[in-house]
Each structure stands twice: as structure tokens, then as C-alpha cells.
Amino acid sequence: MIGVDTNVLLRLSDEQSPEQRQRARRFVEANSGRLFINEVVLVEYAWTLARTFRKPRGEVAERVEILLESSEFVVSRTAEAERALERYRKGRADFPDYFLAEINQSEGCSATASFDGDAIKSEDLFIAIPA
To answer: Deepest in the core among 50, 79, 98, 130, taking most CB within 10 A?
Structure first.
């Protein structure tokens, strides 16, 4: 198994650097099924697409889903990521917020405390920090 950094995933569809895109694609093809994406990388990937590359919410969701369903990658916390993705598609908070809360819930937490206004609207996952 080989761990994959966020920049490798981002390069797979990078139109500004065709040479790096090709290198990343060849690497993935050569190591298909043996590539590991951990939680930090998945969160960083979604956040970078949304914040740095300003991809619309639907495109971020689609790209995360592609990784989750891909036979080329083994994704850590897949069940939590899938639930977070479903919430992300319907809700207002960011994918990393939902993923964090789903992981916390899997670890026995009753809720995740946050100041994020969009996150705390998902009352079954988040609680607001009292004033």
C-alpha cells in the first residue's frame, strides 16, 4: 500500500500542468488498488477544490464521490465519508465539517461543538458554543 498526498489527487485533473497530470495518472494506473487516501488527505482535497480552486459545491461532491467509488484507491473511513458526502449535498456546511462530525460520532461523541453557523444547523451532529 502506498499513501497518496493531496497534491497527487489534485494533479489528476490539473489543466494548468499537463506534464504533472500525466505523471500522476501514470502513477495511479501503475499502482491501482494499492493507493491509500487517509482522512486528512480527503478533507484537504475537498477544501482545496472549494477554497483554492473555487469549484462549485456540486463539482466538489462529484470529485469526492469519484474517489470513494474508485477501485484505484483505498479510502480511510469510507462509511463516514459517504455519510458526510450525502450531508454535504443536502446541507450548507463544508464537506470537512460533516466528515469531522461523522468521524466524531463513530468514535462515540454525541455531537461536535462548533462556531460555524452552517454546521450547527445540522443539529443532530453539531452543537453551538454557548454565549
So the answer is: 98
**What are the residues facing 2 on neighbouring strands?**
35
pLDDT at 17: 86
| Alpha carbon distance 79, 82 (integer Å) | 5
Contact assessment for residue 76 and residue 43, using Cβ atoms and an 8 Å cutoff = no
pLDDT at 32 over 90: yes
Rounded distance, CA 25 to CA 110, Å?
A: 41
- pTM, rounded to two decimals: 0.91
